[in-house]
Amino acid sequence: MLNIKSLREQVYQFLRDEMHAGRLLPDTTLNLNAISQRLGISKTPLRDALLKLEVEGFVTILPRRGVIINALTLEDVRNFYQIVGALEGAVVEEVFPLLDSSHISALRQITADMREALRRDDFDHYYALNIRFHDVFLDLSANKALHPLIMPMKQRLYDFQRRPYVKDWEFRNCQEHDTFIDAIKAGDAVEAARLMRDVHWSFEVQEGFIREFYRREALERLQAQQARA
Question: pTM of this prediction?
Answer without folding.
Answer: 0.83
